[in-house]
Design brief:
About 45% of the residues lie in helices and about 15% in strands. With about 425 residues, it is α/β, with parallel strands linked by helices. A hairpin with a 2-residue loop joins strand 5 and strand 6 (about 140).
């Protein structure tokens, strides 16, 4: 099939920028409450730059008022406060308000700067920022101390002492040294994890009891504080219970250990996304930005060493709950030399899309899937594994609602070698 026949068969939008994405969204049968925008690899600035461009267009043209990104939800509270009030410094917000290295990204800084400027000009119609990931990094998970103490701190002055399952000293004693929770050796060795210790089991029970109390006393708590403060306490509670489950999973020595950890993380992401959807229901849709593997509707898959992993993604869990109020746009690329990704083979989806004129496209993926039936295309295999690029699967093109394709990312490994 030639590029010309693709243009005849599907809706393809050229280099007119984010307006093309708006046109694609307006062709959907329903307006989403959550719009997932996935990147195929981390660390390539063209994708968060596109995120910024698309978000600005969605805010100005489609009534979006929030963005949620793949970063720690608790850390994101600092970012949201900054874009609302301007308190503190941008440098500090970028350092402490993001995880996964996002704070070092110039596109991340530009997003926060633009949101702050917008809110300064629109005091009655503010934009909100959310992280929706758990406090996890590749090789470690955070201590539950911050989340548990914040939840307890919200409840303690507002409910009868007899209803509290423990005091703060008990939490401090059971948590102990934070360093044992963040021990990176536990990522590869379950015996190094604190998750199997008896005090962790006790903390899990206490966290459940605190969450149950938060729900049981919600009429009083909301009336004497606010919906916003109560929802924040719920976030602390979700984070605490999720972290404790994750640490218990790290201590699991069974063959299902890695599968379980992957699923737990995406389940935590999904619960945070659903909470954001509820909170923002009256204000407008939310743009969600993360790796494609977290936002797709089907199971995520990953070949890790000798393990063929598959688990339900946050997008799949969210879509099961929201139906067509969740939509997903997957981003993909043709060539990115700095990531060791050369020109795609002609027999791949990326190779075929690279024959189109221009460099950026917003594509109706279901129409594309129909047009490519029986063409025998294969998934590309020339991608650089260390950078985590996930190519388009010709058998699953109808999974996302649309594809944002970037043919060529400027720059090369040689050009970038001297940059700090």
């Amino acid at each position: 099939m030639t590029s010309l026949s693709i243009q005849d068969a599907v809706r393809v939008f050229g280099d007119e920028g984010a307006a093309a994405v708006i046109d694609l969204l307006r062709s959907f049968p329903a307006r989403p409450r959550l719009l997932g925008l996935g990147e195929p690899t981390h660390g390539e600035e063209v994708f968060p730059e596109l995120r910024n461009e698309i978000f600005r267009e969605l805010v100005e043209q489609e009534g979006y008022r929030s963005i949620a990104i793949e970063s720690d939800a608790l850390a994101g509270l600092l970012v949201d406060d900054y874009v609302a009030t301007g308190r503190g410094s941008l440098d500090d917000v970028m350092e402490r308000g993001f995880t996964h290295g996002i704070g070092a990204s110039e596109s991340g800084r530009e997003l926060v700067r633009w949101m702050r400027a917008y809110n300064a000009d629109h005091p009655g119609d503010r934009l909100r920022f959310y992280g929706f990931d758990a406090p996890l990094e590749m090789m470690s998970a955070a201590s539950p101390r911050r989340a548990l103490t914040a939840l307890h701190g919200y409840l303690a002055p507002r409910v009868s002492a007899g209803l509290l399952p423990c005091d703060l000293d008990t939490i401090d004693r059971l948590v102990g040294d934070d360093g044992r929770w963040t021990n990176e050796a536990a990522a590869m060795d379950p015996s190094q994890s604190v998750g199997g210790a008896p005090e962790v089991t006790e903390l899990r029970i206490l966290a459940d009891d605190l969450m149950a109390l938060l729900t049981a006393e919600s009429p009083h708590l909301i009336a004497t504080t606010s919906h916003a403060e109560w929802r924040r306490a719920r976030l602390y509670g979700r984070t605490a219970t999720g972290l404790l489950q994750y640490h218990a999973g790290m201590a699991d020595s069974s063959p299902a250990r890695v599968w379980r950890l992957m699923g737990l993380r995406d389940a935590m992401m999904a619960e945070n996304l659903l909470a954001v959807a509820r909170q923002e229901a009256r204000r407008g849709p939310v743009l969600v930005f993360a790796h494609n593997s977290h936002l797709q509707r089907e199971k995520s898959t990953w070949q890790l060493a000798d393990m063929a992993l598959d688990w339900w993604s946050a997008g799949a869990i969210t879509a099961a709950r929201l139906g067509d109020e969740y939509a997903f746009l997957a981003m993909a690329l043709g060539t990115a030399h700095r990531h060791g990704i050369g020109a795609p083979a002609p027999g791949t989806v990326e190779g075929l899309l690279s024959t189109l004129p221009g460099n950026r496209y917003a594509i109706d993926s279901r129409a594309l899937a129909e047009a490519l039936k029986g063409t025998g295309l294969t998934a590309r295999t020339d991608t650089s594994v260390p950078y985590g690029y996930f190519p388009l699967d010709p058998e699953r093109l109808d999974g996302p609602d649309g594809i944002i394709f970037v043919k060529d990312v400027p720059g090369s490994a040689t050009q970038d070698a001297g940059r700090g």
